[in-house]
Amino acid sequence: SQQGEEDPQALSIQEGENATMNCSYKTSINNLQWYRQNSGRGLVHLILIRSNEREKHSGRLRVTLDTSKKSSSLLITASRAADTASYFCATPAGVSGGSNYKLTFGKGTLLTVNP
Amino acid sequence: GAVVSQHPSRVICKSGTSVKIECRSLDFQATTMFWYRQFPKQSLMLMATSNEGSKATYEQGVEKDKFLINHASLTLSTLTVTSAHPEDSSFYICSALRSYEQYFGPGTRLTVT
Asked: Which of B6, B44, B97 sits opposite A105 (nearest CB)?
């Protein structure tokens, strides 16, 4: 079953605006990851946030994690047309052993940044 | 570093034939690789975990006799779709595990006619 559920499913904004995507999950995790996928391409790892972290920044990206609500958000500030892509959250299938390395992906948010 | 390649990037085959997809870790060794399938506008679904030197572990609902996985070396895993049918048409993505992080290949678009 899908662990992560993103919303919105699709988001269209103008260049320069901020984009916020949310992800909810169901079971206990020790980390949550965000990936980007350009159309028809592989995945690019954006950021990993651990369960003991509440917020993490990387360039124009800001990720938050609320383990009490089992949710995370990805904020892209000052968006660019090149940010157009699908964004997925992913959580480990388990918290120990080999299952810790298997990832369960959410359904993704398709972000379109209009020039 | 941590580059993963896939070959071919696109393949078209006829129904009933078999197709092999390769996943290579170019600059690191990977004892564990993963195979995912992605249908259009949908998320990635884990198909199986490929372990070097041992049998692959398949996710529930994935037919092991249809999707044959071989992880014969520390840098190469192959996925063979046997007796392919049009419903097997999909985007197949592999990843290689390095230091607890997965590095993804660019994907292979399979079209079965």
From this structure: B44
Mean pLDDT of chain A, nearest integer:
89
For the segment B59-64, the average pLDDT, to the nearest whole number, is: 94
Beta strands in B1-113 (DSSP E): 4-7, 10-13, 19-25, 32-38, 44-51, 57-58, 67-73, 76-81, 90-98, 101-104, 108-112
What residues contact B63, with CB distance under 8 A and at least 6 apart? none
Q: Is A25 on the interface with B (CB under 8 A)?
A: no
CB proximity under 8 Å: B 11-70 to A: 32, 34, 41-46, 49
* Burial B30-47, CB ≥16 within 10 A → b, else e: bebbbbbbbeeeebbbbb
* Alpha-helical segments (H) within A9-59: none
CA distance A8 to B103: 26
